[in-house]
From TrEMBL:
<dbReference type="Pfam" id="PF03033">
    <property type="entry name" value="Glyco_transf_28"/>
</dbReference>
<dbReference type="InterPro" id="IPR050426">
    <property type="entry name" value="Glycosyltransferase_28"/>
</dbReference>
<feature type="domain" description="Glycosyltransferase family 28 N-terminal">
    <location>
        <begin position="9"/>
        <end position="55"/>
    </location>
</feature>
<dbReference type="InterPro" id="IPR004276">
    <property type="entry name" value="GlycoTrans_28_N"/>
</dbReference>
<protein>
    <recommendedName>
        <fullName>Glycosyltransferase family 28 N-terminal domain-containing protein</fullName>
    </recommendedName>
</protein>
Length: 391
Protein backbone atom coordinates (compact mmCIF):
# COMPACT_ATOMS: atom_id res chain seq x y z
CA UNK A 1 0.00 0.00 0.00
CA UNK A 2 1.44 3.33 -1.08
CA UNK A 3 2.14 5.86 1.70
CA UNK A 4 -0.38 8.70 1.80
CA UNK A 5 1.15 12.05 0.86
CA UNK A 6 -0.57 14.99 2.49
CA UNK A 7 -0.96 18.72 2.09
CA UNK A 8 -0.57 20.25 5.55
CA UNK A 9 -1.25 23.84 6.63
CA UNK A 10 0.47 24.78 9.90
CA UNK A 11 -1.68 27.53 11.44
CA UNK A 12 0.31 28.93 14.37
CA UNK A 13 -0.34 32.28 16.10
CA UNK A 14 1.55 33.81 19.00
CA UNK A 15 4.97 35.18 19.85
CA UNK A 16 8.26 33.78 18.58
CA UNK A 17 8.19 30.68 20.77
CA UNK A 18 4.62 29.88 19.67
CA UNK A 19 5.18 30.32 15.94
CA UNK A 20 8.67 29.10 15.09
CA UNK A 21 8.20 25.42 16.06
CA UNK A 22 5.98 25.29 12.97
CA UNK A 23 9.08 25.76 10.83
CA UNK A 24 10.64 22.59 12.23
CA UNK A 25 7.37 20.71 11.68
CA UNK A 26 7.16 21.86 8.07
CA UNK A 27 10.74 20.75 7.45
CA UNK A 28 10.07 17.35 9.05
CA UNK A 29 6.96 16.86 6.93
CA UNK A 30 8.76 17.87 3.73
CA UNK A 31 11.58 15.44 4.53
CA UNK A 32 8.94 12.70 4.57
CA UNK A 33 7.52 13.68 1.20
CA UNK A 34 4.52 15.74 2.30
CA UNK A 35 3.67 19.29 1.24
CA UNK A 36 3.67 21.82 4.07
CA UNK A 37 3.08 25.55 4.45
CA UNK A 38 2.51 27.96 7.32
CA UNK A 39 -0.28 30.48 7.90
CA UNK A 40 0.72 33.29 10.28
CA UNK A 41 -0.41 36.74 11.37
CA UNK A 42 1.54 39.73 9.99
CA UNK A 43 5.03 40.41 11.28
CA UNK A 44 6.67 36.98 11.39
CA UNK A 45 6.51 35.89 7.76
CA UNK A 46 10.06 36.97 6.87
CA UNK A 47 11.53 34.79 9.58
CA UNK A 48 9.49 31.77 8.49
CA UNK A 49 10.49 32.27 4.86
CA UNK A 50 14.15 32.65 5.88
CA UNK A 51 14.13 28.89 6.51
CA UNK A 52 12.73 28.16 3.06
CA UNK A 53 9.20 27.42 4.27
CA UNK A 54 6.23 28.49 2.19
CA UNK A 55 4.32 31.05 4.26
CA UNK A 56 0.95 32.82 3.95
CA UNK A 57 0.00 35.95 5.90
CA UNK A 58 -3.59 35.68 7.10
CA UNK A 59 -5.46 38.73 8.37
CA UNK A 60 -4.18 42.25 8.84
CA UNK A 61 -3.75 42.43 12.62
CA UNK A 62 -0.47 41.25 14.21
CA UNK A 63 -0.60 39.20 17.38
CA UNK A 64 0.53 41.44 20.26
CA UNK A 65 1.55 40.82 23.85
CA UNK A 66 0.95 43.39 26.57
CA UNK A 67 3.14 44.46 29.47
CA UNK A 68 0.61 43.98 32.28
CA UNK A 69 2.73 45.94 34.74
CA UNK A 70 2.01 49.06 32.70
CA UNK A 71 -1.78 48.81 33.09
CA UNK A 72 -2.37 46.85 36.32
CA UNK A 73 -1.53 47.15 39.98
CA UNK A 74 0.96 44.63 41.42
CA UNK A 75 -1.94 42.88 43.15
CA UNK A 76 -3.86 42.55 39.90
CA UNK A 77 -0.81 41.21 38.08
CA UNK A 78 -0.44 38.60 40.81
CA UNK A 79 -4.08 37.53 40.42
CA UNK A 80 -3.84 37.26 36.64
CA UNK A 81 -0.64 35.21 36.88
CA UNK A 82 -1.35 32.92 39.83
CA UNK A 83 -4.96 32.89 40.99
CA UNK A 84 -6.86 29.59 40.85
CA UNK A 85 -10.10 31.34 41.81
CA UNK A 86 -12.15 31.77 38.63
CA UNK A 87 -14.28 34.63 40.01
CA UNK A 88 -11.23 36.54 41.23
CA UNK A 89 -9.38 35.91 37.97
CA UNK A 90 -12.31 37.07 35.85
CA UNK A 91 -12.69 40.26 37.88
CA UNK A 92 -9.22 41.30 36.70
CA UNK A 93 -9.39 39.80 33.20
CA UNK A 94 -12.71 41.48 32.44
CA UNK A 95 -11.47 44.81 33.77
CA UNK A 96 -8.23 44.95 31.78
CA UNK A 97 -8.52 42.13 29.25
CA UNK A 98 -5.95 39.36 29.14
CA UNK A 99 -2.38 39.90 28.03
CA UNK A 100 -2.82 39.22 24.31
CA UNK A 101 -5.12 40.36 21.50
CA UNK A 102 -6.44 37.10 20.04
CA UNK A 103 -9.94 38.54 19.92
CA UNK A 104 -8.66 41.10 17.39
CA UNK A 105 -6.24 39.09 15.26
CA UNK A 106 -7.67 35.56 15.31
CA UNK A 107 -11.04 36.07 13.54
CA UNK A 108 -9.36 37.75 10.57
CA UNK A 109 -6.68 35.08 10.50
CA UNK A 110 -9.32 32.34 10.59
CA UNK A 111 -11.15 33.86 7.62
CA UNK A 112 -7.87 33.84 5.71
CA UNK A 113 -7.28 30.19 6.61
CA UNK A 114 -10.79 29.30 5.47
CA UNK A 115 -10.03 30.72 2.05
CA UNK A 116 -6.64 28.96 1.90
CA UNK A 117 -8.16 25.60 2.78
CA UNK A 118 -10.83 25.96 0.12
CA UNK A 119 -8.48 27.27 -2.57
CA UNK A 120 -5.55 24.91 -2.04
CA UNK A 121 -7.43 21.82 -0.86
CA UNK A 122 -5.41 21.04 2.27
CA UNK A 123 -5.80 17.65 3.92
CA UNK A 124 -4.68 18.68 7.40
CA UNK A 125 -4.52 21.79 9.57
CA UNK A 126 -1.95 21.63 12.33
CA UNK A 127 -2.75 24.13 15.10
CA UNK A 128 -1.19 25.35 18.34
CA UNK A 129 -2.79 26.39 21.62
CA UNK A 130 -3.73 29.84 20.23
CA UNK A 131 -5.46 28.50 17.11
CA UNK A 132 -6.93 25.17 18.16
CA UNK A 133 -10.50 26.36 18.72
CA UNK A 134 -10.49 28.44 15.53
CA UNK A 135 -9.03 25.61 13.45
CA UNK A 136 -11.70 23.15 14.58
CA UNK A 137 -14.39 25.53 13.33
CA UNK A 138 -13.12 24.92 9.78
CA UNK A 139 -14.17 21.27 9.88
CA UNK A 140 -17.80 22.17 9.24
CA UNK A 141 -18.82 21.18 5.68
CA UNK A 142 -15.26 19.95 5.03
CA UNK A 143 -15.50 16.22 5.77
CA UNK A 144 -12.04 15.42 4.39
CA UNK A 145 -10.25 18.05 6.47
CA UNK A 146 -8.38 16.78 9.53
CA UNK A 147 -7.29 18.97 12.43
CA UNK A 148 -4.33 18.02 14.64
CA UNK A 149 -3.45 19.92 17.80
CA UNK A 150 0.09 20.45 19.11
CA UNK A 151 1.17 21.43 22.58
CA UNK A 152 4.21 21.60 24.85
CA UNK A 153 2.13 20.44 27.80
CA UNK A 154 -0.99 18.30 28.18
CA UNK A 155 -1.98 20.59 31.02
CA UNK A 156 -5.75 20.06 30.88
CA UNK A 157 -5.97 16.28 30.42
CA UNK A 158 -7.16 14.38 33.48
CA UNK A 159 -4.46 11.93 34.57
CA UNK A 160 -3.39 10.16 37.73
CA UNK A 161 0.26 10.89 36.88
CA UNK A 162 0.26 14.50 38.10
CA UNK A 163 -2.00 17.23 39.40
CA UNK A 164 -2.64 20.43 37.40
CA UNK A 165 -0.47 23.47 38.13
CA UNK A 166 -1.40 25.27 41.31
CA UNK A 167 -2.61 22.15 43.10
CA UNK A 168 -0.62 20.09 45.58
CA UNK A 169 0.47 16.74 44.22
CA UNK A 170 -1.56 13.92 45.76
CA UNK A 171 -1.10 10.98 43.41
CA UNK A 172 -3.47 8.52 41.82
CA UNK A 173 -7.19 9.11 41.74
CA UNK A 174 -6.95 12.46 43.57
CA UNK A 175 -4.87 13.90 40.73
CA UNK A 176 -7.67 13.07 38.28
CA UNK A 177 -10.23 14.69 40.56
CA UNK A 178 -8.11 17.83 40.74
CA UNK A 179 -7.87 17.97 36.96
CA UNK A 180 -11.66 17.74 36.71
CA UNK A 181 -12.02 20.42 39.37
CA UNK A 182 -9.67 22.68 37.40
CA UNK A 183 -11.54 22.11 34.14
CA UNK A 184 -15.07 22.62 35.43
CA UNK A 185 -14.46 25.10 38.26
CA UNK A 186 -11.67 27.24 36.80
CA UNK A 187 -11.08 26.80 33.08
CA UNK A 188 -14.62 26.46 31.73
CA UNK A 189 -15.98 29.33 33.88
CA UNK A 190 -13.15 31.46 32.54
CA UNK A 191 -13.94 30.59 28.91
CA UNK A 192 -17.67 31.21 29.21
CA UNK A 193 -17.41 34.15 31.62
CA UNK A 194 -14.58 36.10 30.04
CA UNK A 195 -15.53 39.25 28.16
CA UNK A 196 -12.56 38.80 25.84
CA UNK A 197 -13.74 35.37 24.69
CA UNK A 198 -17.30 36.61 24.31
CA UNK A 199 -15.96 39.35 22.03
CA UNK A 200 -13.96 36.79 20.06
CA UNK A 201 -17.06 34.59 19.60
CA UNK A 202 -19.04 37.60 18.37
CA UNK A 203 -16.38 38.33 15.77
CA UNK A 204 -16.29 34.70 14.68
CA UNK A 205 -20.05 34.79 14.05
CA UNK A 206 -19.40 37.23 11.21
CA UNK A 207 -17.38 34.60 9.30
CA UNK A 208 -19.33 32.39 6.93
CA UNK A 209 -18.56 28.75 6.26
CA UNK A 210 -17.37 27.78 9.74
CA UNK A 211 -18.82 26.06 12.80
CA UNK A 212 -20.38 28.63 15.16
CA UNK A 213 -21.15 26.24 18.01
CA UNK A 214 -19.84 27.50 21.37
CA UNK A 215 -21.34 24.76 23.54
CA UNK A 216 -19.88 21.80 25.40
CA UNK A 217 -20.42 19.56 22.36
CA UNK A 218 -17.91 21.60 20.40
CA UNK A 219 -15.31 21.33 23.17
CA UNK A 220 -15.93 17.59 23.38
CA UNK A 221 -15.20 17.30 19.66
CA UNK A 222 -12.04 19.34 20.14
CA UNK A 223 -10.89 17.09 23.00
CA UNK A 224 -11.33 13.97 20.87
CA UNK A 225 -9.10 15.09 18.00
CA UNK A 226 -5.45 13.97 17.84
CA UNK A 227 -3.08 16.03 19.99
CA UNK A 228 0.72 15.83 19.80
CA UNK A 229 2.98 16.59 22.76
CA UNK A 230 6.16 18.10 21.33
CA UNK A 231 8.68 16.80 23.85
CA UNK A 232 10.80 13.71 24.21
CA UNK A 233 9.26 10.75 26.07
CA UNK A 234 12.75 10.34 27.55
CA UNK A 235 12.09 13.59 29.41
CA UNK A 236 8.55 12.79 30.50
CA UNK A 237 6.67 9.62 29.65
CA UNK A 238 3.21 9.73 28.21
CA UNK A 239 0.89 8.72 31.08
CA UNK A 240 -0.64 5.29 30.56
CA UNK A 241 -4.12 6.62 31.29
CA UNK A 242 -4.02 9.25 28.54
CA UNK A 243 -6.57 8.73 25.76
CA UNK A 244 -5.15 7.24 22.57
CA UNK A 245 -5.50 10.53 20.69
CA UNK A 246 -2.93 12.14 23.02
CA UNK A 247 0.57 11.15 21.89
CA UNK A 248 4.11 12.34 22.63
CA UNK A 249 6.14 12.78 19.44
CA UNK A 250 9.60 13.85 20.62
CA UNK A 251 11.40 17.20 20.62
CA UNK A 252 11.75 19.32 17.53
CA UNK A 253 14.17 22.13 16.91
CA UNK A 254 14.68 24.75 14.25
CA UNK A 255 17.16 23.77 11.54
CA UNK A 256 20.23 25.88 10.95
CA UNK A 257 19.38 29.30 9.61
CA UNK A 258 20.88 29.69 6.13
CA UNK A 259 23.35 32.54 5.68
CA UNK A 260 23.42 33.54 9.37
CA UNK A 261 26.90 34.34 10.62
CA UNK A 262 27.98 35.60 14.05
CA UNK A 263 29.97 38.79 14.29
CA UNK A 264 33.65 38.55 15.09
CA UNK A 265 33.06 40.37 18.37
CA UNK A 266 30.43 37.81 19.42
CA UNK A 267 32.72 34.90 18.58
CA UNK A 268 35.48 36.48 20.65
CA UNK A 269 33.14 37.09 23.58
CA UNK A 270 31.91 33.49 23.54
CA UNK A 271 35.46 32.31 24.21
CA UNK A 272 34.72 33.32 27.83
CA UNK A 273 31.94 30.67 28.08
CA UNK A 274 29.46 33.27 29.36
CA UNK A 275 26.07 32.86 30.97
CA UNK A 276 23.26 33.20 28.42
CA UNK A 277 20.35 35.39 29.56
CA UNK A 278 17.19 35.23 27.44
CA UNK A 279 13.56 35.87 28.35
CA UNK A 280 12.26 35.52 24.81
CA UNK A 281 9.21 37.65 24.05
CA UNK A 282 8.37 38.35 27.69
CA UNK A 283 7.63 41.94 28.66
CA UNK A 284 8.07 43.60 32.03
CA UNK A 285 11.20 41.62 32.91
CA UNK A 286 13.70 44.50 33.02
CA UNK A 287 14.17 44.37 36.79
CA UNK A 288 14.72 40.62 36.70
CA UNK A 289 17.22 40.88 33.83
CA UNK A 290 19.19 43.55 35.66
CA UNK A 291 19.23 41.44 38.84
CA UNK A 292 20.75 38.48 36.97
CA UNK A 293 23.31 40.68 35.23
CA UNK A 294 24.42 42.24 38.52
CA UNK A 295 24.59 38.83 40.24
CA UNK A 296 26.71 37.43 37.42
CA UNK A 297 29.07 40.41 37.57
CA UNK A 298 29.60 39.92 41.31
CA UNK A 299 30.49 36.28 40.62
CA UNK A 300 32.87 37.26 37.84
CA UNK A 301 30.73 35.62 35.13
CA UNK A 302 30.30 37.22 31.71
CA UNK A 303 26.76 37.55 30.31
CA UNK A 304 25.55 37.20 26.73
CA UNK A 305 22.20 38.98 26.88
CA UNK A 306 19.61 38.38 24.15
CA UNK A 307 17.35 41.41 24.33
CA UNK A 308 15.74 43.31 21.48
CA UNK A 309 15.64 46.72 23.14
CA UNK A 310 13.77 48.38 20.28
CA UNK A 311 10.93 45.87 20.43
CA UNK A 312 10.71 46.18 24.19
CA UNK A 313 10.64 49.97 24.08
CA UNK A 314 7.83 49.88 21.52
CA UNK A 315 6.09 46.96 23.29
CA UNK A 316 6.14 45.02 20.02
CA UNK A 317 6.65 41.31 20.56
CA UNK A 318 4.98 39.92 17.46
CA UNK A 319 7.28 41.15 14.70
CA UNK A 320 10.72 39.66 14.27
CA UNK A 321 13.12 39.03 11.41
CA UNK A 322 15.94 36.57 12.02
CA UNK A 323 17.83 37.82 8.99
CA UNK A 324 17.89 41.37 10.30
CA UNK A 325 18.98 43.00 13.54
CA UNK A 326 22.27 44.37 14.76
CA UNK A 327 25.37 42.17 15.08
CA UNK A 328 25.48 42.87 18.82
CA UNK A 329 28.08 44.58 20.98
CA UNK A 330 29.67 44.56 24.40
CA UNK A 331 27.60 47.28 26.10
CA UNK A 332 29.74 47.18 29.25
CA UNK A 333 32.61 45.05 30.43
CA UNK A 334 31.45 41.45 30.64
CA UNK A 335 27.98 42.07 29.13
CA UNK A 336 27.36 41.45 25.42
CA UNK A 337 23.88 42.41 24.13
CA UNK A 338 22.40 41.11 20.87
CA UNK A 339 18.88 41.18 19.42
CA UNK A 340 18.94 37.58 18.25
CA UNK A 341 21.27 34.64 17.62
CA UNK A 342 20.24 31.04 16.77
CA UNK A 343 20.30 28.72 19.78
CA UNK A 344 21.80 25.84 17.80
CA UNK A 345 24.90 28.06 17.48
CA UNK A 346 24.85 29.70 20.92
CA UNK A 347 23.91 27.10 23.48
CA UNK A 348 26.83 24.68 23.01
CA UNK A 349 29.16 27.65 23.59
CA UNK A 350 27.78 28.98 26.92
CA UNK A 351 28.22 27.70 30.46
CA UNK A 352 24.71 28.36 31.82
CA UNK A 353 21.28 29.34 30.50
CA UNK A 354 18.89 31.63 32.39
CA UNK A 355 15.51 31.80 30.66
CA UNK A 356 11.76 32.21 31.22
CA UNK A 357 11.02 28.49 30.93
CA UNK A 358 10.00 28.48 27.28
CA UNK A 359 9.94 24.93 25.97
CA UNK A 360 12.16 25.58 22.97
CA UNK A 361 14.88 27.24 25.05
CA UNK A 362 14.76 24.67 27.85
CA UNK A 363 14.79 21.62 25.58
CA UNK A 364 17.55 23.00 23.39
CA UNK A 365 19.60 23.97 26.47
CA UNK A 366 19.35 20.47 27.96
CA UNK A 367 20.18 18.97 24.58
CA UNK A 368 23.36 21.04 24.43
CA UNK A 369 24.61 19.47 27.65
CA UNK A 370 26.36 16.47 26.12
CA UNK A 371 24.94 13.50 28.03
CA UNK A 372 21.36 14.66 27.39
CA UNK A 373 21.85 15.12 23.66
CA UNK A 374 20.34 11.76 22.68
CA UNK A 375 16.83 12.44 23.93
CA UNK A 376 16.96 16.08 22.90
CA UNK A 377 17.51 15.03 19.30
CA UNK A 378 14.88 12.28 19.52
CA UNK A 379 12.09 12.89 17.04
CA UNK A 380 11.50 9.30 15.98
CA UNK A 381 7.97 9.28 17.36
CA UNK A 382 6.99 11.82 14.72
CA UNK A 383 5.67 8.90 12.69
CA UNK A 384 2.77 8.86 15.19
CA UNK A 385 1.86 12.27 13.81
CA UNK A 386 1.72 10.96 10.26
CA UNK A 387 -0.37 7.92 11.16
CA UNK A 388 -2.89 10.16 12.88
CA UNK A 389 -2.98 12.47 9.86
CA UNK A 390 -3.87 9.67 7.48
CA UNK A 391 -6.84 8.34 9.46
Amino acid sequence: MAETKLKVLVFFVGTRGDVMPGVAICKALEDRGHQAAMAVCPGVEDSVRAYGVRCFVVGRVPFTWRNDKKVMSPEEVGILRRSMNAKEFLSVANKHGVSWNLEECLPEALAGCRDLVDQEDYDVILCNICTQVASHRLMKNRPNLKVIRTTFTFWNIATSAWAPGGYEMSGGFMNKLKHLHFLFCVFMPFIFGSNIFKKEFEELKKITGIDHDVGLGFFKKLAETPCLGLWSPNLQDRPADFPQNMQVTGNLFLPQLPNWQPSGSMEAFLQQKPLLLSFGSMLGVETLEEAFIQAAKRLGISVLWISDKKRKEQLITSTFDFNGGEPGQEIEKGVFQVDYAPFDYLLPKVSLVVCHGGAGTVFRAIGSGGSCRKWAEDFGHFEVCLSLFAR
